[in-house]
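chain below, 465 aa
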Amino acid sequence: MIELMIAIVVSVVAATLIVKKYQPHTVLLLAGLTLFAVTAIFYPTHDIVFKKDDPTGWPGFDIFEHIHAIMSYRLAGLGLIIMAAGGFAKYMDHIGATQAMVNITTRPLARIGAPYIVLALGYAVGQILNIFIPSAAGLAMLLLVTLYPTLVKLGVSRAAAAAMIGTTSVLDLGPASGTANLAAHTANIDVAIFFAQYQIPVAACIVPVICILTYFSAKYFDRRDNHEVVVPHHGAVITGAGSTASDEPHAPGFYALLPILPLTLILIFSKLLIHQIELGVVTAMIIGALIGLFCEMFRNRHKMADVFKGFMVFFRGMGNMFSTIISLIICAEFFAAGLKAIGAIDFMIASAQNAGFGILGMMLVACALVAITAIMTGSGNAAFFSFASLAPNITAGTATGAVSLLLPLQFTAGIARSLSPVSGVIIAVAEVAECSPIDIVKRTAIPLIGGLVMLFVYNLLFVVG
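prediction:
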């Protein structure tokens, strides 16, 4: 019981510091270090070292060896996958391929005359784009300069358009997503299988719910705010951000196919289709980036030196993913390992089981903790990374396996991120709409809470049940 109290105090202090905008990486690292130190000093009989690693001979050094083990394990596997996906996304953005894809996918929406139907469909289009553009803030910025002006010119309010764009990445779908890769690795299944067999069926239920609720919610709030919808007359030309040719990307139209190339290869050469050949995420991202490089070499053959230099964006993107995402995973996993070392996790699991909580009850508790963390910190990654490694322990002995908890945890983290007024994507869209983040969150609340309800219903009926 004392160990649990220590873990609670450390966790509350860590959460408070993160809410006060202290760097989450450092906070989680020091919180984990505190838990391990207390364990080593006061509970020396606890096993605080990875069983697969040889101890150094002194528990004090074993703690830091634990960090070394986490870094070695993550960098060689999941870390490299996320870094490659991040580098590919950055390079696609650099050569204009991402912008070309967004332009092509959003342009047909302008032909629909009903503004709120366009708004609802805009969420679905944005969620599909998120498969290929895994950055929530990056996707929002692209949609703010393409889809947002179209929606406003069609007649919806600035706040309604911004709120919808702030929700487009809530499900973190696809092999390029860091949280999806972590969930798949933790569940010990291929990321293509996790995407195709687990994420897509749930998303197919959640996306229509969010679309429908976005439609009615936006109409309600616009009517409450006395917003007058003025639909452009038939035949009026609606353009994207800015209406000048200089704002259009210079990349040719076929570049829109480049961002979807890695996902296509991953799904084709996997157990889903051509099972004799399996293509990993890192390999697919490298192939996609190099094909983009070859296209640039042909298109800009008179500026070959600039093309060669531009490919460094791929490697800088990889480095940026390490400094932001991978390091956060390492620190969060170290903190979670500290909770486990001191005995808090085993105590909570045993208490929940003794209280009669089944896998469904523990799923609801874990998702509530993830949602609260994501809303308080504004980061879905920090919330999910902090709890994902606990899923195998919580679901041990159940017939459903770790994926039954990891899937709702991952989706909950992404959904709760867009319910947070301190989330980067919400702040960004609020600034463009010239309203407060609280106003945006009020508008995202109804669709996203509806999405959460559908998530739990699906999990109850088809995963846990």
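The radius of gyration is 23 Å. DSSP finds 21 helices and no strands in the chain.
thats it, cya
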